[in-house]
Design brief:
By secondary structure, the protein is mainly β. The protein folds into 3 domains: 2-270, Distorted Sandwich (Beta-galactosidase, Chain A, domain 5), CATH 2.70.98.20; 279-407, no CATH class; 412-742, Neuraminidase. The protein contains 1 helix and 55 strands. The radius of gyration is 34 Å and the shape is elongated.
Length: 743
């Protein structure tokens, strides 16, 4: 991401400069200008009493373990940050420099300042230096944008100064144009009430773009009265980039010496997703550590044990990880255990640890070692003993830890694989059920018209035929679980009847298929089933007269009946949702392109439209309920975008949620894995699998399976627990393809 982030200088300018002898500053009638720089300089005895120059040293941070360098976790707006900070005294000034870093790719550099060298208005101009190494040091470009990134103003091709739009909205990015890894830099937002201002005659720029030069990676080279400037200005395109950002912070004298001011930019990273990694190359590491600290006392020792643990994952594209355990203080004694982990080609993981003992802020002992942990194995490292090297103060720490190396998975979408071999499935129909958190069942129609299934209970089992050849017409299959041990599968038969089979935990095998609806009941291509409560199944189909037929099971199958009149539905698209035990909603596409619905809440109601004529093409429809008082319906528009509407007490106006040309006919699946999340999946024109999701707003679509993964006509998604999604489709070679997502 970066080679070095730093704050080389804070330039300070008072409204009146001191004289050349510095006499005016002694009397407070004029001061500066100054170059304030923070160095590693602990306090010297009596330094704070110097009447001329005042103190110039770091300050132990009282609310961060009385350390010179603060390292702690903080929370802000629901995000967790690692805070790194130092507190310095520079003459009359108190300066706190901090960096907040989050796992989500946010960095907030910040400078806080208070104090008055003279009772005069003055400005602080912190100069941050960002030396980015985005996937390496080379191939970096700098771009500038206005309107908060909405409008590109082009590429910066030559080293030089940067000036933000005084009206706001200026953004910069540094990007590796080969890999796409990008750092966005947002300058401070002007806020005169809080002292955040724009450039001044003393510091008349907002930034600088430079190529990396080792000669410029050092102490600030300019005298206090000289602004940033360089003699050489080369091309900066496709190079190793250094981005300087200059802040401007005004301090009014009448605010007093104890008034804190702060200023800082924001850095965010656009990180291209890591491609799914082969399962066998991902190593999951679990560490358990025991640390005991003893603070020696003249009359009584203070001893405290700590048990800590942590998990990390490494693989070929992210081969390094670290765990840092910081324990204490016990009295004035602390102990750190840093464990570095590096992925190896042979599935081993190299472990390098450093154990440290601190007495207050002085490191008084350190040991380290490295070793390899084999794949599938664990190694316990014991006998770590560190003693304070000071004579007469035998503070100690004892440590031991165990590292377990097992095959792991990365969070996110995984590499695709098949669960049934080529030649298994006819195109057009696949169904999936997650009847328990650790159980999955998938169903499809075989090329000979039989019904097959494969199940997962920690491992995928060999496919099994559950209905004989000739049972099903291609294109429509539905599966439900009316209880954890129960499965029901339904299909349209070649004669237009509805067939079904079932399995209960008490039965060793699948039951002989039965007839749910007589021959001539259904047109091929569309079937939907729901279980609104235990012991109840409702199934729906499109009749030959384009009405909607229904039957239900509550211990026995009942005589079919229509829930929508003849001429209601176009073939090949039907969806049903049970959002609560006494409610069913059914959806279909009318011949004029309307999306229509009916519902049951004790009785069936007259159908009505939820999207106007011309909204939908036939063949693609999905419904979902993410909570009992919410319904979402999605379909394929005439421009092959995905349209959507929702009900939350009233039906909303339909609108597209993807760009045109997103989806192919016959393949749309919706699933809600928790109340505030809805996921949609479809097969794209190039045979890849597309998705979008709603978590407060619909997100831009992206692919979860590559080009040529799927034949058109069938995709099924299921969530067996809130942090897991499973996805299934039929591959071009007739295999059943799959991938999954986990958090």
């Amino acid at each position: 991401m970066f080679h070095k982030l730093s704050l080389p200088v804070i330039r300070v300018k008072y409204v009146k400069d001191e004289d050349s002898l510095g006499i005016s500053s002694v009397f407070g009638s004029a001061c500066g200008p100054y170059n304030d720089q923070i160095y590693w300089d602990p306090v010297d005895f009596g330094e704070d009493l110097n009447p001329i120059s005042g103190p110039h040293h770091l300050v132990k941070i009282s609310d961060c373990g009385k350390r010179y360098i603060c390292v702690r976790e903080t929370a802000s707006n629901g995000s967790v940050f690692l805070e790194l900070g130092v507190y310095a005294r520079i003459g009359a000034y108190h300066i706190y420099q901090s960096w907040h870093l989050s796992d989500s790719g946010l960095i907030f550099p910040q400078v806080f300042s208070k104090g008055l060298s003279c009772t005069l208005d003055h400005d602080h101009h912190p100069h941050w230096r960002f030396d980015f190494d985005l996937d390496g040091a080379d191939h970096q470009d700098v771009n500038v944008f206005s309107e908060n990134g909405a409008t590109s103003l082009g590429l910066i091709v030559t080293e030089g100064r940067l000036f933000n739009d005084p009206a706001g909205g200026t953004l910069y990015n540094v990007t590796n144009f080969q890999t796409g890894l990008t750092a966005w830099i947002a300058p401070p937002v002007l806020d005169a009430d809080h002292g955040i201002i724009g450039p001044t005659p003393f510091s008349n720029l907002d930034g600088y773009v430079r190529k990396y030069r080792a000669s410029e990676d050092g102490n600030w080279p300019h005298p206090p009265e000289q602004d940033m400037g360089f003699a050489v200005h080369d091309s900066v395109a496709d190079s190793d980039v250094v981005f300087w950002l200059v802040g401007h912070l005004h301090h009014k004298a009448d605010e007093g010496a104890d008034h804190w001011h702060s200023v800082g930019p924001r850095i965010t990273f656009d990180v291209p997703p890591i491609p799914p990694q082969p399962f066998e190359e991902v190593r999951s590491l679990h560490v358990d550590a025991h640390i005991t600290i003893k603070d020696f006392g003249v009359f009584e020792d203070h001893v405290q044990p700590f048990d800590v643990s942590g998990d990390r994952t490494v693989h070929r594209l992210a081969p390094h990880a670290e765990l840092l355990f910081q324990q204490g203080p016990v009295g004035d004694v602390r102990a750190n255990l840093l464990i570095k982990m590096d992925w190896q080609e042979d599935d081993k993981v190299n472990i390098a640890f450093t154990a440290e003992l601190y007495d207050e802020d002085e490191r008084v002992g350190q040991v380290g070692e490295d070793f390899n942990v084999p794949s599938g194995g664990s190694i316990e490292w014991t006998g770590i003993h560190i003693k304070d090297f000071h004579t007469g103060d035998p503070d100690t720490t004892n440590m031991s830890f165990t590292v377990k190396n097992s095959q792991g998975l990365l969070p996110g979408w995984q590499r695709t694989f098949w669960i049934a071999p080529p030649g298994s499935a006819h195109a057009g129909a696949v169904a999936a059920v997650g009847r328990e958190p650790e159980r999955l069942d998938v169903f499809w129609i075989q090329p000979d018209g039989g019904i097959a299934t494969a199940s997962w209970d920690g491992n995928w089992q060999a496919p099994l035929t559950i209905a004989p050849p000739g049972s099903a017409y291609p294109g429509a299959i539905a599966a439900v679980s009316r209880g954890p041990g129960q499965l029901d599968v339904l299909w349209v038969r070649p004669d237009g009847g509805i067939g079904a089979t079932a399995r209960d935990g008490a039965w060793e095998t699948w039951r002989v298929p039965v007839t749910v609806a007589l021959p001539g009941s259904a047109r091929p291509g569309a079937l939907a089933a729901v279980s609104r409560k235990a012991g109840q199944i409702d199934v729906f189909w499109i009749q030959p007269d384009s009405g909607i037929g229904c039957s239900f099971w509550d211990g026995t199958w009942h005589t079919p009946f229509p829930v929508a009149p003849p001429g209601s539905a176009h073939p090949r698209a039907l969806a049903a949702v049970a959002r609560k035990p006494e409610q069913i909603d059914v959806y279909w596409i009318r011949t004029n392109g309307e999306v229509a619905t009916t519902y049951w809440d004790g009785t069936w109601h007259a159908p009505f439209p939820v999207a106007p004529p011309g909204s939908a093409q036939p063949g693609t429809l999905a419904g979902a309920s993410r909570n009992p008082e919410q319904l979402d319906v999605s379909w394929m528009q005439p421009d092959f975008a995905i349209g959507n509407t929702l009900w939350d007490g009233a039906w909303h106006t339909a609108s597209p949620i993807t760009p045109p040309q997103s989806v192919r006919p016959g393949d749309l699946s919706a699933v809600s894995r928790k109340p505030e999340q809805l996921d949609l999946f479809w097969i794209q024109g190039d045979g890849s699998i597309g998705t979008t999701f709603w978590n407060g707003a619909w997100q831009p679509p992206f692919s979860v399976a590559p080009t040529a993964s799927a034949r058109p006509g069938a995709v099924a998604a299921v969530s067996r627990k809130p942090e897991h999604l499973d996805l299934f489709w039929i591959q071009p070679d007739g295999a059943i393809g799959s991938t999954f997502w986990w958090a």
